[in-house]
């Protein structure tokens, strides 16, 4: 019997009503410009509520509307709620959003589970927003695709990179890293710190990213290691914070969008 992983933050981080959600995402995408380059192999996108980080995330997802052959998406997001060692994936066969069900690539999941740092742990997904908020954007930008989902706990960049390399494949596989940047600084301090982090990402330099620079520091760092190995280049598409998108500048969260080709 097939099992479905139900959404945890629909109606909170993004609209629960399907038509409202689809319209919101489409309007965010329509505000962005496509780049004159091939569809990315990997993206980094933020994971706050859509009213805060949605415009920044849309700048990366807009690039997926270019002609592409993507039919599998490997998504890695940091753990916010449950502490654990390594990377967690799900036992579910489908992941649900208000826009429908996405099939989990069970073959790829089994391939990843052969690595010692990967475990099947559905508890890591309970109430976790960082991966879930990426899914509706994928549903509005790609056609038929499956997902290989991971929540990243206490792990090294090398352990994450090993998982990515295991599932890298060709242009049919997209990698999505979910990460916000700095948290709860004043507006100007956040801009300074996020510019430093953004430069480290573009330069593929994970060693320059500290714990407080990005909540998804570990999956981001793993991608940067793999990007160096595979000869990719990174480009920053948008770098803002919640003071730009939601008004309050006294205590902000940073957001960046990046594509890797």
Automatic annotation (TrEMBL):
Top-level taxonomy: Bacteria, Pseudomonadati, Pseudomonadota, Gammaproteobacteria, Chromatiales
NCBIfam families given in the database record: AmmeMemoSam_B
Domain of life per record: Bacteria
A Pfam family annotated for this UniProt entry: Memo
Name by which UniProt lists this protein: MEMO1 family protein TBH_C1727
Family stated for the protein in its record: Belongs to the MEMO1 family.
Family matches, as InterPro entries: MEMO1_fam
